[in-house]
Design goal:
Molybdenum Cofactor Biosythetic Enzyme, Chain A, binds molybdate ion, Molybdopterin biosynthesis moeA protein, domain 3, six-stranded mixed beta sheet, 4 domains, binds magnesium ion, about 425 residues, alpha/beta, molybdenum, binds ligand LQZAQKY5, Molybdopterin biosynthesis moea protein, domain 2, 7 helices
Length: about 425
Amino acid sequence: MLKTRNPITVSEAISRIMKQVGKISSETISLNESCGRILAEPVLANHDVPPFHRSIYDGFAVRAIDTTEASSHSPAAFTVIDRIGAGDVSSVSLEENKAVRIMTGAKLPKEANAVIMLEQTVSSEHSFVIHKPFTPFENVSLQGEDAKKGDVIIEKGSMITPGVIAVLATFGYTHVKVARRPVVGVLATGSELLDVSTPLEPGKIRNSNGPMILAQLKRLGVQPKWLGVRADDVEACYLTVKQAAEVCDAVITTGGVSVGDFDYLPAVYEKMEAEVLFNKVKMRPGSVTTVAHTDQTLLFGLSGNPSSCFVGFELFARPALLAMMGSTKPYLHYAKAVIKEDATFNSFTQFIRAVYESKPSGALIAPAGFNKSNSVTSIARGNAFIVLPGGTDRIKRGEVVDVLLLGMDEGHESWVIRE
Ligand SMILES: Nc1nc2c(c(=O)[nH]1)N[C@H]1C(S)=C(S)[C@@H](COP(=O)(O)OP(=O)(O)OC[C@H]3O[C@@H](n4cnc5c(N)ncnc54)[C@H](O)[C@@H]3O)O[C@H]1N2
Ligand code: MOO
Ligand SMILES: [Mg+2]
């Protein structure tokens, strides 16, 4: 007999999953391999940045006190006693009205505390004059102004971006401790599924969810392990999921989670004695998404319908895998935008695949096309979800709605800044 399912809210579903997430071990990898990985330890400043007072211009290093009387009527004259470029250190001692010709990035000579730009001087070979005073530390980049030794620059659990790489390089980290990449098994179930390379046959479709999930995992920096396609056969699915659960940190399946005669994932979980966290969520698409776990492995039973599968991954698998790696920001970016079309009501919370665009007048969003669980094209066209709470009255064009942004590493399609 059909077992009734108890639908729970999306937030409750997420919270049940997150309670089961265990932290993965860490590994040390080389700096140049680390972009996109999650830091397993904070990045500490092991020296001041900059490490010394330095010139920010090409010019002359002087003592500010020697410039105080300079004016257009009464110029101050200086004698140049040394010349240094970035990387050089001057050993001269600066006395009254003496200067060192200095280039951008070079360490300030000991007694100097100001830099005069070349353009602010009238100079000859070994001397120059100025017509205005300079304040102490004018045109000087101060030691430690960007970071002080001992500061935590980047928190543990942050994703390594090109900027973080620059910070690591600044402090001489040739290697960095990051969370190991979870190994995630991916299985597509369905007797109707053909390999991508196969011509269509009556009643069959190509497996599009498998490659899609592999790509969603790669976007997170997770290591996918392709388990293949299995027909709707309880034994075959059971063996594959069970074996994968023994070696993977998580197993994601697609298809077979609803109540049909050949939907075997509920039976697979039962046979594995896995604890089912939920099997019905108050959301559209993806209401039949089922998540279970064994002692050490999370089992994501995503729906077979492409849009449901995609949404299920982004809402549930994504934060769990990021949290497993210790990420402090595992959830999708949130925004608000004005909806460009009327949207229809549903008793469950809707996650409509949508196109989000930022205009100078504000952010706009519109559904990305065919809005059904079985749509594949709207996934491709969308870059966000419109989130409409369950039970909302009809949303009218022009109203502000909640938005979740996808794939934030992706840039805008054109240069939109006006100068
Ligand atoms: N009596 C009921 N029927 C259904 C219910 C329900 O509550 N009661 N829920 C519906 C909802 S909602 C959804 S969503 C689907 C979920 O179905 P399953 O997760 O069991 O998935 P399948 O039945 O295996 O497939 C559904 C659909 O997706 C296609 N599919 C499957 N795998 C792939 C793949 N790898 N690539 C592309 N497309 C795939 C499959 O051919 C089906 O068309 O159940 C409803 N039914
Ligand atoms: O799980 Mo279904 O996608 O709610 O439509
Ligand atoms: Mg089904």
